[in-house]
Amino acid sequence: MKFRKKNLTIGLMIFLVCSCDINNLNQPALGKLDESKLANKTGVEALLIGAYSLLDGVSIDDVHFIGGNGNSPSNWIYGSICGSEAYEGSQQTDIPEIRNIEKFKSIASNLFFDEKWTAIYAGVARTNTVLRVMTKATDISIEDQKRIAAEARFLRAFYHLEAVKLWNNVPFVDETITYDAGNYHPANDKSIWPNIENDFKFSFANLPAKATATGRANKYAAEAFLLKVYVFQHKFQEAQLLIPDLINNGSTANGLKYALLKNYADNFNIETKNREESVFAAQMSVNDGADYTDPGGNVGGGFNGNFADELNFPSGNNSVTLCCGFFQPSQWLVNHFKTDPVTGLPDLDNFNTVDVKNDGGILSRTAFTPYDGTLDPRLDWTVGRRGIPYLDWADHPGADWIRDQNYSGPYSPKKNVFYKSQVGIYTNTSGWPPMASANNVNLIRFSDILLWAAEVEIESGDLNKAREYVNQVRRRAADPSTWLKKSDGTVAANYKIGEYTNPWNDKTYARKVLRYERMLELGMEGHRFFDLVRWGIADTEINAYLQKEKMTRTYLNDAIFKKGINEIFPIPQRQIDLSAGADGTRKMIQNPGY
Questions:
Q1: What gap in Å lies between CA 335 and CA 347, rounded to an integer?
Q2: Using CB atoms within 10 A as the burial measure, which of 29, 172, 500, 574 is most buried?
Q3: Nearest to 380, CA basis, from 396, 360, 403
Q4: CA-to-CA distance for 310 and 292, rounded, in angstroms?
């Protein structure tokens, strides 16, 4: 099922709360609606679809536009670029707001933060509308009431979790906070982790094991997010209690047990989405009639597709899409995939001493031989590099597909990219740029759960059980039948990957392996920065990255990560200003250091 934002049967009732930021939750002048007309099963279900629809961060109606690349559920800016996996990309004159975030020179007036906040709390507002209107309906069975409430609270917890990851000090907004109640200026003066936990616990207790439609949450998706919440808070004993059920009993929307897909790359292929490794994903669709002219005059479709990642494709002569060259993988990320030619294991401490060979400064018409050392095969499903097949488009030609090699290096992103054979079928056919696709954004994959399980065992359990979980993830990648192939059927590079066979006896070593493995498995998926922060090592890791990258990416010369400040981002100044009550006192305060 695709949760569409435009052609709901009851029209645009999903905009019941209109303004889309927490401080204008129900502005009458922007469309005060009679909730009694929605207080029935059809209306409430439609409102719930509207709450799901903002998982992609994009919405459009005649009143308000929520969009922009900073809103992507992939968190490519905040999670991957800030997590050292990628550079801004493109060229130095393009979108300085992203570059400032990358350099940890963020300011509270940066438009990207306000747009992200607006999208998140618009999602929160929609979930609260579902809960509020449902209490007035008389034709909804007790069973359906439980399920609808559980889905709404699941989404509310998810949106708030996204806010906490970015800003930490944020308000929790529930269905009791409305304009009419006069209490629409919530403060950010206490932790909302307990509220998020309670919503996910309620969802886990009341959602069905099998979702009612593809894309909706089931009880195991709620359990997976509860696990994530525990891990982020270092509640490892509580987390440990959830793992056996998730791994042994967890089921996907179609009733299959969660498992790793045979082919790692299938997690990023439109034609193989929503399978057994997808625990929960932001659903995308295109060519579904959702064309629209936005307030800026841009006309096109794709607003139900992966619109917020549209900048992140190769750019240049005869490239995949001619736009726009952002989100280029870093040399730091690529170097992580080097392996020992005998064991197939990474060098945890010296991976960055010598770079994987690249074609920086070499024209596409000049001969180039790719790196011939051993590599983890997941590299070439994650990163586009010279001389290696770029899905089914062609061998990546290097500089011809890079907007400015001198600025952001020689690599292209890959996990978000569609296949040439999918153009016009799974990509939008109208508007600019015509690159929105039906490629889901995976919010939790089963491999993520296995690596959380390993982390939990390292911190409060059995180190060698943790090793088994890590090896399970690596074993999938080690299957030669799944490696990237050239057109003649030969493997695309010198791949070598092995398992950890020696017993683990040292917790420090086990932590280092687990943290490294998460980057290999989940690279360019928007998790790394938040992982570094929750591990308490963001300052050392990011500053080590910057120290070397400055030698080639000179625009990073003034970049520095400040411990105690840059673990979270500045709260948008506009939101602080809007939190003022009748006496002019702002209810929200800025994060320290901003």
A1: 10
A2: 172
A3: 396
A4: 16
Q: Which of 403, 97, 452 is nearest to 247 (CA)?
A: 452
**What span, in angstroms and rounded, lies between the C-alpha atoms of 337 and 441?**
23
Q: Please compute, for residue 384, the number of CA atoms within 13 A of its CA located in the half-sphere on the CB side.
A: 31
- Average confidence score pLDDT of the chain: 89
The 10s digit of each residue's pLDDT in 502-545 is 999 999 999 999 999 999 999 999 999 999 999 999 999 999 99
Token reading at 376: 């983890």
What is the Cα–Cα distance from 522 to 269, expressed in whole angstroms? Answer: 15
Output 430 or 228, whichever has higher pLDDT.
Answer: 228
Q: Quick one: DSSP state of residue 86?
A: E
CA dihedral sign of residues 159, 150, 229, 307: negative
pLDDT band at 14 (very low <50, low <70, confident <90, very high): very low
Q: CB-based contacts of 22: which residues, under 8 Å, 6+ apart?
A: 121, 124, 125, 171, 173, 177, 184, 186, 575
More confident residue, 321 or 525: 525
Asked whether 446 and 276 are in contact (CB, 8 A), the reply is yes
Q: Write the CB contacts of 279 (distance below 8 Å, at least 6 apart in sequence).
A: 220, 221, 224, 250, 252, 258, 443, 444, 445, 446, 448, 449
Q: Is 78 exposed, middle or buried (0-12, 13-18, 19+ CB in 10 A)?
A: buried
Convert the pLDDT of each residue in 166-199 to its tens digit: 999 999 999 998 766 556 678 999 999 999 999 9
Which range of 92-96, 180-184, 254-258 scores highest in mean pLDDT? It is 92-96
Identify residue 258 by its one-letter amino acid code: Y
Per the listing, tokens 């987390």 go with 239
* Residue 67 CB partners (closer than 8 Å, separation 6+): 57, 58, 59, 60, 115, 294, 303, 307, 308
Place of tokens 């809103």: 71
DSSP tag of 419: P
For residue range 15-35, list pLDDT tens digits in order. Answer: 333 333 333 333 333 345 567
DSSP state of 399: G
